């Protein structure tokens, strides 16, 4: 993969776009990212889908108008991340 693609601002902080790029590049993952990843992306990305209030970008990093957050539950996120790391490790070493 061309590292320049990873530095593209449209992709750089977008977990869903990065997941799709990994899939397109041949990582053996589902074509559609899991729900917990989409939720994390909504929380940490540059924009919040459907937001029209001009909410601060990168809310978890810089704060802003948010006073509470809802995060994905630990499971299946933890198990999925462990499986994803194992898959990447396998593909990199074979």
List the keywords.
94 residues; mainly alpha; 6 helices; 55% helix; 0% strand
In short:
With 94 residues, this protein is mainly alpha-helical.
Secondary-structure element order, N to C: HHHHHH
Number of strands: 0
Q: Major sheet, described briefly?
A: none
Radius of gyration equals: 15 Å
Low-confidence stretches: none
Helix content class: 55-70%
Q: Which structural class do the helices and strands define?
A: mainly alpha
The averaged pLDDT comes out at 80
Distance between the termini: 17 Å
Proportion of residues in extended strands: under 5%
Q: Helical region count?
A: 6
State the domain count.
Answer: 1
Apparent shape:
globular
What can you tell me about this protein's structure?
With 94 residues, this protein is mainly alpha-helical. It has one domain (3-93). The chain has six helices and no strands. The longest helix is centred in the last third of the chain and has 20 residues, at 74-93. The protein is globular. The mean pLDDT is 80.
């Amino acid at each position: 993969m061309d590292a320049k693609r990873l530095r593209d601002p449209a992709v750089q902080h977008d977990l869903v776009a990065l997941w799709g790029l990994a899939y397109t590049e041949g990582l053996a993952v589902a074509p559609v990212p899991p729900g917990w990843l989409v939720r994390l992306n909504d929380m940490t990305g540059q924009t919040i889908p459907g937001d029209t209030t001009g909410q601060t970008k990168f809310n978890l990093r810089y704060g802003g108008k948010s006073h509470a957050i809802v995060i994905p539950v630990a499971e299946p996120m933890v198990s999925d991340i462990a499986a994803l790391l194992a898959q990447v490790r396998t593909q990199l070493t074979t």
